[in-house]
Amino acid sequence: MKLKITSLALLLIVVASSAFIAAPVKPVTYKVDLTKSTLTWVGKKLTGSHNGTIDLQSGDLLFDGKKLTGGNFTINMTTIKDADKSANLERHLKADDFFGADKFATSAFVIKKVAAASGSTVNVTGDLTIKGITNSITFPATITWNADGTVTANADKVLVDRTKYGIKYRSKGMFPDVGDKMIYDEFELAIKLVAKK
């Protein structure tokens, strides 16, 4: 009889304690609004620089409450535009020397880790795939919750080393005798993602 009471008491303790164990919360998906989101680029060379835009193709951000936990976005590399409207430069950027847009029509970024920094700033680490080659990059981003229920994620200066993706055209590191025709290995991206449930 004593054994039955002890067993019953243990069973009640297990049931009661399991009631307090919260089920894992499923992150809420916010869909990137392509009409309000932007991706701009800057490439620098010894004698100047070029800048322009690339269209986003799709994207999602995952949130646990107001905390960014994951997400991804896809870039349509066939839409590379030069701000000065140079058709020759746009053609060259899409060619095999650079992004090979005919063969690699999209690039992608997948968030792997988000670490708090300060205030609304977080450090985002993820896998960036360009020309079928994937490398991990980390950059700061700010998260802003808007009055209309949308959320904006801004990364103003994402540095990408193009040589890690097989883009070696006029790289001083790859071709030391390139002289004043040298193009810097790193280019900059500015990413603005506006997303909604």
Q: Keyphrases for this structure?
A:
Lipocalin, 9-stranded antiparallel sheet, mainly beta
Give a written overview of the molecule.
- With 197 residues, this protein is mainly beta.
- The protein contains 2 helices and 9 strands.
- Strands 1, 2, 3, 4, 5, 6, 7, 8 and 9 form a 9-stranded antiparallel sheet that branches.
- β7 (133-145) and β8 (151-161) form a beta hairpin.
- The radius of gyration is 24 Å and the shape is elongated.
- The termini are far apart.
- This is YceI family protein.
- Keywords: Signal.
- Residues 29-196 form the Lipid/polyisoprenoid-binding YceI-like domain.
Structural Rg: 24 Å
Q: Low-confidence stretches at least 5 residues in length (pLDDT < 50)? A: 8-12, 14-20
Helical fraction equals: 10-25%
Q: Average pLDDT, to the nearest integer?
A: 90
Q: Proportion of β residues?
A: over 45%
CATH architecture descriptor: Beta Barrel
Distance between the termini: 57 Å
Overall shape? elongated
Biggest β-sheet strands, sense, barrel: 9 strands, antiparallel
Q: Which class of secondary structure composition applies to the elements? A: mainly beta
Number of domains: 1
At the fold tier of CATH, the topology name is Lipocalin
Number of strands: 9
User: What order do the helices and strands follow?
Assistant: HEEEEHEEEEE
CATH level 1 class label: Mainly Beta
Number of helices: 2
What is the CATH H-level superfamily?
Lipid/polyisoprenoid-binding, YceI-like
